[in-house]
Amino acid sequence: MLERFRYPWIGTRSLTGFNLFRVLAVHDCSVLVRNRSIFNFHQGVRVLVVVPLQLIRRGNDGNSKRFEQEESIRERSGVRTCAIPVRSNDLPFDFRFSYTESSPKVRPIGLREPKYSPFGPGRLDRKWTGVCAPAVDPTVESLEGAEDPKLEEQRKKKREMIQGKPLTTDERKALVSQFERSKTNRHVNLGRDGLTHNMLNVIHNHWKFAEAVRIKCMGVPTMDMKNICTQLEDKTFGKVVFRHGGTLILYRGRNYSPKKRSVVPLMLWKPHEPVYPRLIKTTIDGLSIEETKKIRKRGLAVPALTKLAKNGYYAFLVPMVRDAFLSCELVRIDCEGLERKDYKKIGCKLRDMVPCILVTFENEQVVVWRGKDYKPPKDGYFLKDRESFEDNNDDLNVAQEQQAI
């Protein structure tokens, strides 16, 4: 019996089930599969791809009529009448490619591609704005950071329902010791893209077999570990019970059920990043062209504050730059060996978190200037290297229970 799938390749060829599953339903093409075991990753499959007429490049060879006749036969036979099931989703947050490396407060000035939904055509009941798939009807104001307060209430209620009663100190310690590196090798890597949308499904897959999952954070996202912990708890409805450097342990909750969890729709490809305003301007605000050139020349000659390693842990960078601004006005960070996108993101995070003024990215260096009227921030950015997230009120609660008895 023939089974119909959608597949973008043209022609008849032998494919593995993995490749067929990877690019399933990317374009509007029909596939006739004669083998039911298409998801067996070690067995080849012979597929016949039926290409729509609008994708066929017709010439003067007289084959256009034959293609039209074949297309009409397929339509009459009902081969292409089955529609793609639209997946409705009740997750109370906007779908983005990266939740930690993109801010809803920053509005892009343009798009690099048409608004094609990365979830596939007709597979999600949300509109793709080019930046995100909002949980509510998209408007122009929604991209400026004004979030619906009802969504926050829904997330809070759902998280409280899943978490249930908080863990005690002994339960936390037992959970942390169970998921140490020496006890298990199962973990999730969080790289330069930060917490991506498809990573939510990976975390839920780990939670099918264990109460918690270890997450190893590397690269640019580690500059703001507080944001990573917040986004993980907000999007997965879990709880971070331990953190040491860039390693987290995320607990799923007492009332978590893999069968009742919300289904996370997968993105089929990575969407292009929108166009944002330039980070480095021709002239620094408040300075002339000559003064800007002098500052850039001086900044490249300043001794490097530190040299960043690829896929390293960068949480120390913000307090280090703040301390350096107390004695000098220019700071240079050596990013040799890092990709250009990475040290641009580092400069953008320093601008927002220190704060400071970006000077140049030349020669794989990040040079920042503290400004003319620099005042150190009153609230110091201090993040412990190790956090256990213990409940300090456990002893107090035990004493109160003994008194009540």
Automatic annotation (TrEMBL):
It comes from the Eukaryota. GO terms for biological process: Group II intron splicing; mRNA processing. Keywords: mRNA processing, mRNA splicing, Repeat, Ribonucleoprotein, RNA-binding, Transit peptide. One of its GO terms (molecular function) is RNA binding. One of its GO terms (cellular component) is ribonucleoprotein complex. Residues 165-263, 285-381 form the CRM domain. It holds the Pfam family CRS1_YhbY. PANTHER family: CRS2-ASSOCIATED FACTOR 1, CHLOROPLASTIC, CRS2-ASSOCIATED FACTOR 1, MITOCHONDRIAL. This is CRS2-associated factor.
